[in-house]
Design goal:
178 residues, 24% helix, globular, four-stranded mixed sheet, alpha+beta, 4 helices
Length: 178
């Protein structure tokens, strides 16, 4: 199974596979990014690529920070993340292979294995390459997207939430986080 140390590494791998396109800039005040994503899905379905917009306009301000979207763009992409090596077949077949692989991690009682946390020193953690502290912390300096005019605000889309139920166990879900 191919593992990625960062979202940048994942994006690079997707780009090499022809599953990611780069776009120099978009005006999100006009919902160009949202419309582009919807149009990709409408026209290309399971073959729609992920995309990176290098520069985004929001609330009249240009952000020189990239925004990546559609990163889980097909069942084959998701299956690859779970270590499915044979990605051949129709989307439904790839989905079945992915589901089978995921379910293979359960024990005989249907429980998911626990993985002990691993402590990584901040200086060694790729996620800590850029750190903001004190008064420099300001989430509005990032181009979080308001997807549709009726949305209550901007969202971090494809955020992973880990939940644990005492009876059902742990679940990881991908959600839009406002």
């Amino acid at each position: 199974m191919e593992c990625f140390d960062s979202l940048r590494d994942y994006a690079d791998a997707m780009e090499k596979q022809g599953k990611l396109v780069r776009i120099p800039e978009m005006d999100q005040d006009a919902y160009e990014m949202t419309a582009f994503a919807y149009r990709l899905d409408d026209k290309m379905k399971d073959e729609a690529p992920a995309f990176i917009v290098e520069r985004v306009k929001m609330d009249g301000q240009w952000f020189d920070r990239p925004v990546i979207s559609n990163i889980l763009n097909s069942w084959s992409t998701v299956a690859q993340c779970f270590g499915v090596e044979d990605l051949s077949g129709a989307p439904g077949e790839v989905y079945d292979k992915m589901a089978s692989k995921i379910l293979s991690y359960q024990d005989k009682d249907g429980r998911w294995p626990s993985i002990e946390p691993k402590v990584v020193e901040a200086n060694d953690a790729p996620v800590k390459a850029v750190r903001y502290t004190g008064d420099d912390v300001d989430v509005t300096q990032f181009p979080w997207i308001k997807n549709n005019p009726a949305d209550g605000g901007r969202y971090i889309s494809a955020g992973c939430c880990i939940m644990e139920d005492p009876d059902l166990g742990r679940n990881v879900g991908t959600y839009r986080l406002m």
